[in-house]
Amino acid sequence: MEGFALQHQHGKAKVRVGRLWRGATSQEHRFVEWNVSVSITSFVLPAFTDGDNSKIVATDSIKNTIYYLAKQCTEELSLEDFGVVVGQHFLRTYPKIVTGAKVILSQKPWERVVVDGVEHNHGFKLGSGKHTAEVIIGSNGCVKVTSGITDLSLLKTTQSGFEKFVRDQFTILPDTDERMLASTITGVWSYSGKPANYQRSWEAVKKVLMDTFFGSPPTGVYSPSVQHTLYQMAKAVLVRFPEIENIHLNMPNIHFLPVNLPTVGVKFENDVFLPTDEPHGSIEAKLSRMEIFQCKL
């Protein structure tokens, strides 16, 4: 490798896992559907330079290991905890080969069906907001966990506006203090300390994000811009959860355009809209605490 530097990793991507836990004394079933991707860094330079595969953990073996570990988890566990189990397995099983592991996971939002006000024991339906996680484990054993949410689609039909922005020769958008606000939100947050329960923490963060977006049920809360609402949502999460060190939110502004066709009898009165998602406004930001200790991987 004289004169060259090689960075490499390998693994198995998009391994789909369905895991069902049946209670020993209860008829209530617990079910999750995960998508798991694993990348490992390892001492396999001879595979690249000399065609020597003797230290490669085959990607098919990585896939099979994921199913084996899912089977071994006889008690229900969170997406993040399973990611830690997977990552640590490769470092502990191949200590002379594997130097690091990254596990990226997502969980379909299956939620229990409610029939006549009672939760069904074994019936599920898809909800909104997909749970995501990333687990990175370094050669020194340091574990870094990131949680997130995707596809959280929120809309409110009033209590939103956009005024007093920059105006120049390219501006045709009018000021308004009455409009719809809609977004399909992606969020990612990092922990400085492990919460008591990752799944419950994720559910609580989702609730804080939604509650801040909408405001109280009777009146809501006014949004002067997507930027302001994003900041209020991110700040609310950091205030509520001291173990979260930062949060990144991506909030595209999904437009509902006024339909105004007076010549055919359709006068816009905040009632008829054209839904569109392309093009859309793109707004994102990351809010962090100051002077957070970083785990060195």
If classified by CATH, what would the architecture of the largest domain be? Roll
Uncertain residue ranges? none
User: What's the CATH topology label of the largest domain?
Assistant: Urate Oxidase
Q: Care to count the β-strands? A: 12
Percentage of residues in DSSP E strands: 35-45%
Q: How many distinct helices?
A: 5
Tell me the name of the CATH homologous superfamily of the largest domain: Urate Oxidase
Q: Quick one: overall form? A: globular
The secondary-structure element order is: EEHHHEEEEEEHHEEEE
Q: What is the radius of gyration computed over CA atoms, rounded to a whole number of angstroms? A: 24 Å
General description of the model:
By secondary structure, this protein is α+β, with helices and mostly antiparallel strands. It folds into 2 domains: 8-141, Roll (Urate Oxidase); 147-296, Urate Oxidase (Roll). The protein has helices at residues 45-49, 59-72, 79-93, 198-214, 226-240; strands at residues 10-22, 29-42, 98-107, 110-115, 118-126, 130-137, 143-156, 181-191, 244-250, 253-258, 273-281, 284-288. An 8-stranded antiparallel β-sheet has the order 1-2-3-6-7-8-9-12, covered by helices on one side. The protein has a two-stranded antiparallel sheet with strand order 4-5. Strands 10-11 form a two-stranded antiparallel ribbon. The longest helix has 17 residues, at 198-214. The protein is globular. The mean pLDDT is 95.
